[in-house]
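Backbones bend. To wit:
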Amino acid sequence: MNHDSATVPVDIETARAIVRLLLGPDDAPELLPPAPSEVGTLTTLLRGQLALLIPEVEAKASRLSKQSIPRYCALACIGEAVRKLRLGDGDTPAVRVAVARKLARSAKALCDHYDKLDGGAASQSKSR
């Protein structure tokens, strides 16, 4: 099945589910890391989710005024996510978990921006 990426919505719930596996509901530092065999898979999934989220959030942010604070924040978050995508996976289990959690925090933030930018666009169009 061939879909135009502009018409297929990002699966925010899947992205958030992956994030919860690494961060828990409150990004609790005491959360036990996933099994070493799962970290690589979760990291790969997060990299894929970020690759989908970044252009979607960027497109939503670009529709806002250049002076918009939500736009500025979303674009800053995108820059941070891009930098984190450049990280290697790590040579030790502890580093692999740390990288996966950094990617998860970026994915969580981008999901939040994705949702908020939708809400902002809806409320702006209703006020017109």
Remarks:
- The radius of gyration is 16 Å.
- Confidence is low (pLDDT under 50) at residues 1-5, 120-128.
- The longest helix spans residues 93-126.
